[in-house]
Amino acid sequence: MNTKPNIFTSLTDLLAILLPGAILTLLLHGWTGINLAQFLLSGLESAGFISALFFLLIAFLLGYFIMWISSILDLWIYYPLRDIVYKDQRHLDKIREIRTNRASSYSNGLFSDFEWAQTRLMEKLPQGFFQVERYLAESRLFRALMIALFLAGIRAFAENVWLWGLGITVLWLFSLIRYFQTCHGATKMAYQCLIYLEETCEPSEPDDDPPQNEGPDTRNTLSMDKAFTQKVSEEMLAYLGKEQTGKIRGMTLDSGGKQIIASISKSETIFCYRGKGKLSIQIPDSDQSEQIRISSYALTHVPVQREIIIENQSSTSLELISIQSA
Questions:
Q1: 47/196 same-domain check
Q2: What does pTM read for this prediction?
Q3: ∠ at Cα 318 (123, 103), nearest 5°?
Q4: What is the number of other CB atoms lying within 10 angstroms of the CB of residue 41?
Q5: Could you tell me if 228 and 192 lie in one domain?
Q6: Same-domain check for residues 73 and 135
Q7: Can you give the pLDDT of all 326 residues of the chain as single tens digits?
């Protein structure tokens, strides 16, 4: 499971600390009567280098404090107004249905629906989890900016600097809008990714007379429902590294050590819906092969021009879905 944060999220979180902290530091300098211009210019001198570092340190500490305090805005502003601003609850209803069907009773009350969706994405679909984190990082930035701009606006109006006050008010309103958009975007992205993940796990009905599972160069391929195929959106498949979709095929191996052998002409992503088994990928120009254990909800990428052997190693059927590159 790859949970390494991306650069965009890390930089946005750093900006969410430094930018509001710098604004509050400038306000504190103004309120204490320190000549801010002289203070900043002294940083260009060798003797004032420590002062500049001290300014950044204070900005970082104040910014971290603001970001911590601003989290209360989720309870005071976003959650109470969320259902009023965004009335479409279809994604939430679907997630609650999925959670009811899959989650154990001990998780009730311990995780919110959003936290539960995040946890499953972290394990099953890290690409979707990173997209959610991008939205959350932006929401933290604009949430902290709302606090800093609010204090700056109070000072501007208190000193009768109306032009600055109006400008800060416009920025505050923009931050408020983006805060709502990014919070809602994170929730919607998490639910969409998890719904996509669950729908691609949906098993297909077997043919009346399915082909045999054994024998070289054979593939027990089940025709997928048209409705199922339509549910697989290009946007969601992009998170799996597929900008375009080729064939989507289902495979079922009965219990008892059954296996299939196939030659892959195009790269494929194999998703295990149910069961346990072993996937062997032949290494080119070699007698060796890469052995991969597969289990429920595991994703495996198979490169082009490879011969694979899939073996069922459980007492139940092994059900797989193959998404082929276009």
A1: yes
A2: 0.56
A3: 40
A4: 12
A5: no
A6: yes
A7: 444 557 888 899 999 999 999 998 888 876 544 554 455 455 445 445 666 778 788 889 999 999 999 999 998 999 899 888 888 888 888 888 877 766 554 455 667 889 888 888 888 888 889 999 999 999 999 999 999 999 999 988 988 889 989 999 999 999 999 999 999 999 999 999 988 887 776 444 444 444 444 443 333 333 344 443 444 444 445 545 444 456 666 677 777 655 666 666 677 777 776 777 887 777 776 677 777 777 776 777 777 767 778 888 777 777 777 777 66
**Co-location of 11 and 133 in the same domain:** yes
Residues 191 and 227 in one domain: no
How many independent structural domains does the chain possess?
Answer: 2
The answer for residues whose C-beta is within 8 angstroms of residue 87's C-beta and 6 or more apart is: none
Domain that holds residue 251: 221-325
User: Do 34 and 128 belong together in one domain?
Assistant: yes
> Domain containing 289 — which CATH number?
2.60.120.10
Residues 195 and 260 grouped into a single domain:
no
